[in-house]
Write a structure and sequence with these properties.
With 337 residues, this protein is mainly α. It has ten helices and two strands; from the N terminus they run H-E-E-H-H-H-H-H-H-H-H-H. The chain is globular and about 80 Å long.
Length: 337
């Protein structure tokens, strides 16, 4: 056997092994979510699903405590949640410790020698995050419905949520005439390790650029959606798929991706979700940048932001749809002074 043939066979073997590693061995569960006969199904690996279910368990909920005067009359410097009674306030503070900083305890946000002090940046951030949670539960029912969110939805027992994002500068590139930076030509983990644009979050989940794939007309008539624009949209859609553990047909009918009349109800929920994420990034997280120390900023000096994975973490409904806000009515009302 000649040397070139041996090299070719070796490459084929490597490719076959690589492909085999991407396959799931049977059995695979199939669940129909959309219209029959159109392949609108989800494929699940029971072994992986079991691991995801373990990762999406919620901690035990403390029993509700009601009674006492408003917290702002008992504790000093209570700028948020001062409208709830002291029993609810104390229970919520203990719960937040479990949700966000179970190892660090109260000292993660508070100076334990002066609990009223705002010296720690984490207290300033957490105060605004409580306002954000109340805003989501009160004003974004179009996306979270009655399920709602708590701090645990994103944090999962970690001071910094695992799934956050910063503006992506891309990989180092050659300078001079060889320089190019179109946002592509490198593996993008947030887009399924494809070579699609590596930062689809800034234009779509912080800014409000249009998310488009195709023009609705055969000829350009003011709606010119280029192939390059389509690639950015595909990168974002790959993020949705990864974040929710689903494929495109959860929301779309593949016979006509753009047709709302042939889409599932989940597409409208996702439409609101995109706008909710933009709202949270621009109204709550971006304004907090001055509060963060340099070590908590991204490579381009921006603050951490949220995307779909921050809450969903691989499942189509965060924490498999458990109604977490129901046990914390103080987090379901719009914030008051």
């Amino acid at each position: 056997m000649s040397f070139p043939i041996r090299i070719a066979l070796g490459l084929i073997a490597v490719i076959m092994v690589a492909l085999a590693l991407t396959f799931d061995r049977p059995p695979i569960d199939v669940f129909q979510r959309g219209y029959r006969g159109l392949g609108m199904v989800e494929n699940y690996n029971p072994r992986r699903l079991a691991a995801v279910q373990v990762a999406n368990q919620t901690p035990a909920t403390l029993p509700q405590i009601h009674g006492g005067p408003p917290a702002s009359t008992i504790y000093k410097n209570v700028k948020v949640l001062g409208d709830v009674d002291v029993g609810e306030f104390t229970r919520l503070m203990a719960s937040i410790t479990t949700w966000v900083a179970p190892q660090q305890g109260c000292a993660y946000c508070h100076d334990t020698n002066d609990m009223a002090s705002d010296a720690l940046y984490t207290k300033i951030v957490s105060r605004r995050m409580i306002e954000m949670v109340r805003h989501v539960n009160a004003d974004w029912k179009t996306h979270v419905a009655a399920t709602g969110v708590t701090c645990y939805t994103c944090h999962r027992g970690q001071p910094v949520p695992e799934y956050i994002w910063f503006a992506n500068p891309g990989q180092p590139r050659a300078g001079g005439v060889a320089f190019t930076n179109t946002g592509m030509a490198m593996p993008a983990p947030q887009a399924g390790d494809t070579s699609l644009p590596y930062d689809p979050f800034t234009p779509f989940l912080e800014q409000a650029h249009e998310i488009r794939v195709e023009s609705p007309t055969a000829l350009p008539q003011g709606d010119r959606q280029s192939i390059k624009q389509t690639e950015w949209t595909y990168a974002l859609m790959m993020h949705f798929s990864q974040s929710l553990g689903v494929n495109c047909t959860l929301c779309h009918n593949s016979r006509s991706f753009r047709d709302w009349d042939q889409s599932t109800p989940q597409r409208l929920t996702a439409w609101y979700g995109i706008r909710m994420v933009r709202d949270l990034n621009t109204q709550y997280l971006d304004p907090l940048k001055p509060a963060f120390p340099a070590a908590r900023l991204g490579p381009l000096g921006d603050n951490a932001k949220v995307n779909c994975a921050t809450c969903h973490q691989g499942v189509y409904k965060p924490l498999f749809g458990k109604a977490v806000a129901a046990d914390f009515p103080e987090l379901t009302a719009a914030a008051k002074p």
